[in-house]
Amino acid sequence: MRPALLQNSQILRSAIGGDLLAGDDRYVRALTLRNRAALHGDLPYYLLPPEIAVLLSCCHDLEKRTLFEFLWNTGARINEALAVRPADVEFDAAPAFVTLRTLKQRLNPRVGRPPALKLNAPGPTARTASPVKRTVALEDGPFAARLRDHIHTFTEHKTKPIWPVTDDTARNWLKKVLREADRQGVRFSLARVTPHIFRHSFAMHLLFHGVAPQTLQALMGHKDFKSTQVYLKVFSLDTASGRGGVPFSMDVGVSAEMLQLVANGAKKVSD
């Protein structure tokens, strides 16, 4: 069932605050675009950064919050996040980065169905299906610092998962956070929020910040570019970013001044 869309006024009052919505034209445009996308059954459902910030603020348990922040900062699938170990995170790099095992892709997949051959079977005929790995930078420095502190505080072994829980447990954690948000009177634009919403939100957040589609494909771990294109389709609803169309006319005086500046700059270089 498609998540029901709540009214913009509810988001204004309870999730992001009137001043931000009224004063930030970029957010208004992003919100309008997302609401249009939510009316289509074949486009991803995602939250915008202010909504996620409020959602995270309703999570008072450090272990749970760090997991949800990790999903938001990396776009990892929930099972990929739960498989991450301290050894998979490199904090000494600038920026820090994490190596994720893309669980929907595997190296050396089985071709055909030879009856006597099993993956991971012992002997010379064995073919191991290993997860494809991808690297995602932790661009948010404060989050990287919190993740590092969390690992140092709660994780004893570098080769054990940072969050040793099942995906069902993680989903129940999120449900509890959403109940707390509801108790506080917070209403989000999507009636149903799951761990996978963080992944969609990560993808759209990167596209809003100009990340190239091919780069997004790599960061998301998509084998087929068609999986990445679903996010690009959202922008087809943008109608030139809500700015009243694409302008093709320019003031002649301004244009001449710009050309003169370029010409003067080129002359200085040649001299």
Plain-language structure description:
This protein has helices spanning 8-16, 18-23, 25-38, 49-57, 62-74, 78-82, 141-154, 167-183, 195-208, 213-220, 225-232, 252-270; strands at 89-90, 97-107, 130-137. The longest helix has 19 residues, at 252-270. A hairpin with a 6-residue loop joins β1 (89-90) and β2 (97-107). It has a three-stranded antiparallel beta sheet with strand order 1-2-3. The chain is mostly helical. α5 (62-74) crosses α7 (141-154) and α5 (62-74) packs across α9 (195-208). Residues 1-23 and 108-127 have low confidence and may be disordered. InterPro entries: DNA_brk_join_enz (IPR011010), Integrase-like_cat_sf (IPR013762), Integrase_catalytic (IPR002104), Resolvase_Rsv (IPR016423), Tyrosine_recombinase_XerCD (IPR050090). This is Phage integrase family protein. GO terms for molecular function: DNA binding.
